[in-house]
Amino acid sequence: MVNAKIVSFAPFPLEAQRSWFLKYVDHSEVEFTVARMDLSEDEVCEAVSDATIIMATPMTPFLNRKILDSAKKVKLVQFVSVGYDRIDLDAAAELGIPVANNAGVNAITVAEHAIMMILILQKKAVQYHDSVMQGKWPEYTPGDMWELRGRALGILGLGAIGTEVAKIARGFGARVLYNKRNRLTEDAEKELGVEYRSFEDLLKESDVLTVHVPLTDETRHMIGEDEVAKMKDGAIVVNTARRDVVDESALSNALRRGKLYGVGIDVPKTSDDRAEELRKLFGGYNAIITSHIASASRQIMGRIIERMGENIRRALSGEEPKFLVTAS
User: What is the H or E stretch that residue 194 is in?
Assistant: First the structure.
């Protein structure tokens, strides 16, 4: 007898999702459906009206108060992703709806992606690759390229991803600086090999700044014109966090002026207009733009499925889910 319903907004085939997640619960008791991403607000309300579990993604229609209020039976909103900005957390809290994310599940792969971008930008590798492929053999100046060893790598946001970045960067011999809302203990800093800096000092001292903070009202455009102006001439900025944490126009302007040496961004899904915007902002300069693949790896899907399946089981059995998030 079906006594629970999972409504998924994850962009994977229904049968694949059923095989991934229903192995954690009794198939006969759970109905599993996949909702379209392009539903209207009223259609989303209808889709979740009898849902026990809502599975959400960064592309999910925004789960506002009206939608959440229509989900009278919901026991958990589970995000596939680490990010959870597609929901009104205040409304969820007032309605008593637990919200969980996949905190730290992508830490290794995003950290490796950020380091990859840094290494590529330090050698202007994309520009030289493009020149060679066009049959050109560009002149270069060895003094215009960098090693990571000995440079100040600033990490903005030392959560699970930032911590993995610090571990990798230390292996390259970088001096690792960091800023986060709650500073580590002195012993933890020594163990990880990192040095705390205020936000202002992190900007001023970093040769390379890599951004790993969630998108909130507080962090929106956290790196803009004023912040870039405080950075070293010739610094590198890499953003593998949410798009709006940085002001892309500010980065572009600084890159064109020579204030910044390089920019790396892992962007969300593009349209033709967005692609043209990115070409205007960064085309022809020392920039690397990837298609929101920082968290993609063969290994990560297994971790995501295991975590979400366990949380679904916990929610349906009345246990408290793990990785709960609250409004900041």
Answer: strand 194-196
Predicted TM-score of the model (pTM): 0.82
306 shares a domain with 237: no
Give domain status of residue 31, yes or no.
Answer: yes
CB 245 within 8 A of CB 215: yes
Q: How far apart are CA 230 and CA 239, in angstroms?
A: 17
Q: Which residue has the tokens 């215009």?
A: 144
Query: Does 170 reside within a domain?
Result: yes
DSSP annotation of 205: H
pLDDT in tens, 135-149: 998 888 778 899 999
* Cβ–Cβ under 8 Å, residues 293 and 266: yes
CA distances in angstroms from 303 to 150, 175, 195, 288, listed in the order given? 34, 31, 31, 28
- Tokens, residue 253: 């302007």
Does residue 283 share a domain with residue 185? yes
Domain carrying residue 46: 4-105+298-316
Question: Tens digit of pLDDT for each residue in 40-67?
Answer: 999 999 999 999 999 999 889 999 999 9
The total domain count for the chain is 2
Q: What is the DSSP letter of 71?
A: -
